[in-house]
Design goal:
The complex is a heterodimer.
Chain A: H1 2-9, H2 11-33, H3 52-55, H4 63-94, H5 100-112, H6 115-129, H7 135-159, H8 163-171, H9 176-205, H10 208-213, H11 220-230, H12 235-265
Helix pairs in contact in A: 2-12, 4-7, 4-9, 4-11, 5-7, 7-9, 8-9
Chain B: H1 26-53, E1 55-58, E2 62-65, H2 70-111, H3 116-124, H4 131-141, H5 147-154, H6 157-164, H7 176-200, H8 204-212, H9 217-228, H10 230-246, H11 249-254, H12 262-273, H13 276-301
Antiparallel strand pairs in B: 1-2
Helix pairs in contact in B: 1-13, 2-3, 2-7, 2-10, 2-13, 7-10, 8-9, 10-13, 12-13
The chains are: A mainly alpha, B mainly alpha.
Chain lengths: ~270, ~300
C-alpha cells in the first residue's frame, strides 16, 4: 500500500523523468556510436569499440569544409540579424510611429510560417531574379528568419528597463551617444546576447531553408543529409557529441559565473 | 500572438513615457533596414510564389502568368493523401508532445527544487547537436530486431499498432509510427518551454487554497492548474503543430514512400522534378490551410489576446 501511495505522490516526477529520457536518448546514442567501428557504410549498428573517428575527426572528405561554411554563415547571420533586430526592437519599445500593427505582424509571421513555405517562396524570388544560389543566398535567408527571434528577445529585455535611468544620465549632461553606450546598451545586453545566441543556434542547425536555397554549397546539415543517403561516417557523431558537450559546458560555466556575481553583490 | 516566444519580463514594465519631440524620424531610421529586409526577402517572395502558382509553361520556354487556377485543383486532387497525412501526423505528434511535455514542464516548475536549472539545461542542450544527427539516431533506436522493437513485440504493442495501421509486421522503422515518434521528439522542446513559462507564473498559494477547500490533487489540477496554464498549452501546440505539418525530414529519414507528407512533395517538386507552378500552389495551399486552422483554433480556445 505504501508503495502505491509513493507511486501516486511521485507520478508526475516519474512521468517527467521518462520524457527527459526520451529527449536525451538520441544524444546518448550519438555519443556511444561515435566510438563505433561500423562494417558497412552506415553507422546504425553497433560493431566494436574504437576511437578512430575521435583521432581523425576531419578524415571524411568534405565534412570539415562544410562545418567551416556553416560556422561562417552562422557568424555573419548572427551579426546581421542581431544588429537589424535590435534596432527594430528599440524602435518598437521606445517610439511611437505609424503602421505599428503592420510592423508587428511582419515580425510575427516568419515565426508562424512553416519553414518549407518560406524556403520555397524565397527560392521562387531568387529564381525570378536570376540570382546565383550559394553562400550569399543562404546568408540572406538566415538573416531573414533569425531577425524575428532577435526582436522578440531584445524587446522583452528593453520593455522591462527603467526609463528613469536614461533620464538620469541625460540630467547629468551625458550626450545621447554616451547615454546609449554607457547606460542603455549595458542594460539591454543580456537580451541582445540571448537573441544572438538563438540566431547562431538556429542558423547553424538550419536545414530546410538551406536545402532550398543553397545551390551546390554544402553546409554541415546538408552534409549530414547527403550522408544519410550515401553512408554515414562515424565522424558525424564525433561532431554531434562535441557540439553537445561544448553547449552544456558553456551554459554550466555561465551559470557558475552568474552565481559568483550574485554572491559577491550579496 | 507576439507573446508566443517571449521570455517573462525581468521586472514590471514601466509607466508610459512622454512622447519625444526631438527626432521624429528616428524610429523610421531604426526600422528601415530590418523591415526592408523582411519585405524583400519574406513578403515579396510570397507574392512571387502566388504569381508562380498561376503560371504555365516549361523550364525550357519559360513561364508566363496565364491565371491558370487549375493547377490548384490538380495539385489538390493529386496530393490530397499527403495533405491529410501531414495534418494527421502533425496532430498526433502535437497531442503526444502535450501528453509527454506537460509532466516534465510541471516537474521543472513545481517539483524540481535545486535541480531545476540542470533539468532546464538538459531540455535545451540537445538543440545544439544538429537535429539531423539526432533524427538519424532514431534509426538505430528503432532498428529492426533491436531492443525497442523487441520490447514492443513482447508487450504486444505492435499487434495493436499493426491493427491500427501504424506499423506493419515486425518493423517500426519506415512506418507512420516512426515518423510520428521522430516528429514528437523533434518538436517536444517547443512544447515544454511555453508550458513551463506559463506554469511558472502560477501563484503557488492558489494550489494551497484549493487544497484547503478540500479539493483532491486531481481536482486541483483540473480546475486550477490546467486552466491557468492554457496560454502555454495554446502557444505550445501552435509551435509544435505548425513546423510539424510542414516538415519533410522525419518522413524522409524515418519513413517510407507510404509516409510522404506534403513537405516531401513540395521539396521534390521544387528541387528534383522542377515543376514550379505545382510546387508553388502546394506551398500556398499548405500556408492557407495552416493559417485557417490556427485562426479557428485560437478562436475556439478563447485566448485571442495571444494574437
Amino acid at each position: 500500500m505504501t508503495f502505491v501511495n509513493w507511486l501516486k505522490r511521485h507520478l508526475v516526477v516519474i512521468a517527467g523523468l521518462i520524457t527527459l529520457g526520451y529527449l536525451l536518448l538520441p544524444n546518448v546514442v550519438v555519443t556511444v556510436f561515435s566510438f563505433n567501428k561500423p562494417k558497412g557504410r552506415f553507422n546504425y549498428q553497433w560493431q566494436q569499440f574504437s576511437t578512430d573517428a575521435w583521432k581523425d575527426p576531419c578524415g571524411v572528405a568534405g565534412m570539415c569544409g562544410s562545418l567551416s561554411i556553416s560556422l561562417q554563415i552562422a557568424f555573419w547571420a548572427t551579426i546581421g540579424a542581431t544588429v537589424l533586430g535590435t534596432m527594430i526592437a528599440f524602435a518598437l519599445v521606445r517610439y511611437r510611429f505609424r503602421a505599428r500593427g503592420a510592423v508587428n505582424s511582419l515580425i510575427f509571421l516568419p515565426m508562424a510560417m512553416p519553414e518549407v513555405v518560406m524556403a520555397a517562396s524565397l527560392l521562387t524570388l531568387f529564381l525570378n531574379m536570376g540570382a546565383q544560389l550559394g553562400f550569399w543566398t543562404i546568408l540572406i535567408a538566415h538573416i531573414m528568419f533569425c531577425l524575428s527571434f532577435v526582436v522578440v528577445a531584445v524587446k522583452a529585455r528593453v520593455m522591462s528597463m527603467d526609463p528613469r535611468l536614461e533620464e538620469a544620465a541625460r540630467d547629468l549632461y551625458a550626450s545621447p551617444v554616451q547615454t546609449f553606450l554607457r547606460v542603455t546598451l549595458p542594460i539591454a545586453a543580456p537580451g541582445i546576447a540571448a537573441g544572438a545566441l538563438l540566431s547562431f543556434a538556429l542558423s547553424f542547425d538550419d536545414f530546410i531553408i538551406t536545402n532550398f536555397n543553397a545551390g551546390s554549397t554544402v553546409t554541415f546539415p546538408m552534409f549530414v543529409w547527403g550522408s544519410a543517403q550515401r553512408g554515414t561516417p562515424v565522424q558525424i557523431n564525433v561532431i554531434g557529441t562535441t557540439m553537445f558537450l561544448v553547449a552544456v559546458l558553456l551554459v554550466l560555466s555561465s551559470m557558475v559565473v552568474g552565481n559568483r556575481r550574485t554572491k559577491q553583490k550579496a | 500572438m507576439s507573446t508566443l516566444a517571449e521570455a517573462p519580463p525581468v521586472a514590471p514594465a514601466p509607466e508610459k513615457r512622454p512622447p519625444r519631440q526631438r527626432g521624429r524620424l528616428v524610429p523610421y531610421w531604426l526600422l528601415l533596414p530590418g523591415i526592408l529586409w523582411l519585405i524583400v526577402f519574406f513578403a515579396l517572395p510570397m507574392i512571387y510564389q502566388a504569381s508562380t502558382s498561376v503560371q504555365t509553361g516549361s523550364l525550357e520556354e519559360g513561364y508566363k502568368v496565364t491565371w491558370h487556377f487549375a493547377t490548384y485543383w490538380d495539385a489538390l486532387s493529386q496530393y490530397w493523401p499527403q495533405f491529410l497525412r501531414s495534418v494527421a501526423y502533425a496532430a498526433a505528434a502535437t497531442v503526444l508532445c502535450l501528453v509527454l511535455g506537460y509532466p516534465l514542464a510541471y516537474l521543472i516548475a513545481f517539483r524540481a527544487g535545486r535541480w531545476r536549472n540542470l533539468i532546464m539545461i538538459l531540455v535545451i542542450a540537445p538543440f545544439f547537436t544538429s537535429f539531423l544527427i539526432r533524427t538519424l539516431a532514431w534509426k538505430t533506436i528503432l532498428a529492426d530486431g533491436g531492443p525497442v522493437v523487441g520490447a514492443l513485440n513482447t508487450l504486444h504493442v505492435l499487434d495493436v499498432t499493426n491493427w491500427l495501421g501504424w506499423t506493419s509486421g515486425d518493423r517500426v522503422l519506415a512506418t507512420p509510427l516512426a515518423v510520428v515518434c521522430g516528429l514528437t521528439y523533434n518538436f517536444l522542446p517547443f512544447m515544454i518551454l511555453p508550458l513551463y513559462t506559463s506554469l511558472e507564473r502560477i501563484d503557488g498559494r492558489l494550489h494551497e487554497a484549493a487544497g484547503d477547500l478540500y479539493a483532491r490533487p486531481w481536482t486541483v489540477f483540473r480546475r486550477v492548474t490546467f486552466p491557468l496554464s492554457m496560454p502555454g498549452v495554446v502557444s505550445g501546440t501552435l509551435l509544435t503543430f505548425i513546423p510539424a505539418a510542414g516538415d519533410y525530414v522525419n518522413a524522409d529519414l524515418l519513413g517510407s514512400t507510404d509516409t510522404r507528407m506534403v513537405g516531401n512533395v513540395i521539396q521534390s517538386q521544387f528541387l528534383r522534378i522542377l515543376d514550379y507552378p505545382t510546387a508553388a500552389a502546394l506551398s500556398f495551399i499548405l500556408m492557407a490551410a495552416i493559417l485557417v486552422m490556427v485562426t479557428v483554433y485560437i478562436r475556439k480556445s478563447g485566448t485571442e489576446d495571444l494574437v
